Predict the structure.
Amino acid sequence: MPMNPRLLRPKATGFNPASISGIVHWWDANDAASLLFNSGFVESWTSKAGTKTVASQTTPNNRPATTTVNGQVALQFDGTNDGFDFTGTARTDETWIIAAAQTADQTGTRAFVNDAGSGHGINIGRSALARLLDTSWGNSTEGDARFRPEYATPNTVPYGPAVTSVVRSAAAGGFVFIDGTQRVSSVDGGTSFTTSGLITIQRIGYYSSSVFQLQGWIGEILLYDRALPAAERLKIERYLGKKWGIVVA
């Protein structure tokens, strides 16, 4: 007796970040269909969910290459001029979750995602003693709309690999998580923003072709148009951690 065809179908397994409501962008470098190559470098990166936004680079010399991380394909930014532009939307309420790493120590600030106007976004920085995650959302005052948790000491330690999350809400303020754990600023000891600035993120891997250029890799970037509660955020962070070989709480 032949087997029922329904029993031959593989069962769907695993978590899908698009199952969480409010997804705006999901750039996944390991999805070959999302990458457009030109002469061996990535010309554009298309979101696989939400608005299906295309992040692109029109200047050939400013396009990232690819690398392999834990068996997955990631984008490798050269620290000189690589980066993508995309059309962003001004928001006060949102959740960014990024799997990435800085692969060489660099002075100054380096961007994962940035507004391309005032240096706001999710960036890597350093103090006199420590490596910092610099999240800035409309104000440079610590604990107001800027939050700089310490990542490691000394300040020459590169950032990551890490799953980095920023949750912003006009009502509740903002919170920064590294590998699933809420981090406290090394500067002011605060645990949340007091305001949530109206910011338009529109660049990946840099602020401009000469400022904030990331030397490192980015595997995945997700944006939701609301402040995700802990249970939903952790599902995404643990998914990314397992995929990219990062330990998440």
